[in-house]
Amino acid sequence: MMGRETLPQTEAIVGGHLSIIAGATRLGSVNKLGRFDAVIRNAAVGYREAFRLTADVLAPAFAINTLSA
User: Fold this and answer.
1) Which domain holds residue 69?
2) Do 5 and 19 meet the contact criterion of CB atoms below 8 Å apart?
3) What radius of gyration, in Å, describes the C-alpha atoms of the chain?
4) Does the pTM exceed 0.70?
5) Is pLDDT above 70 for 69?
6) Which of 2, 18, 48, 61 could form a disulfide with 68 if both were Cys (CB 3.0 to 4.6 A apart)?
7) What secondary structure letter does DSSP report for 36?
8) Contact 69, 62 (CB under 8 A)
9) Is 42 left (phi over 0), alpha (psi -120 to 50) or beta?
10) Tell me: the pLDDT tens digits for 9-60?
11) How many domains does the chain have?
């Protein structure tokens, strides 16, 4: 994830892990920061990844592609 060292003029950088409910909820609260000039969202799950469950006992593809959308 990019940080202030990469984009020093940036007022706010918010990141989180979308495969867990708490991470998706945290990112959902960014609206409290006010108006954004740009939003870059990059969330994906590779189809070749081995099956596993997240900490919330969800399949990562469901958690990232459905819950966090």
Assistant:
1) 1-69
2) no
3) 14
4) no
5) no
6) 18
7) -
8) no
9) beta
10) 777 777 777 778 888 888 878 888 888 877 777 776 767 778 888 888 888 7
11) 1
**DSSP-assigned letters across all residues of the chain:** ---TTT-TT-S------TTSHHHHHHHHGGGGG---S---------TTSPP---TTS--HHHIIIIIT-
Beta carbons within 8 Å of 26's beta carbon, 6+ residues apart: 16
Place of tokens 């593809």: 61
- Cα 53 to Cα 19: distance, rounded to the nearest angstrom: 9
Residues 6 or more apart in contact with residue 40 via CB below 8 angstroms: none
Structure-token pair, residue 9: 């003029």
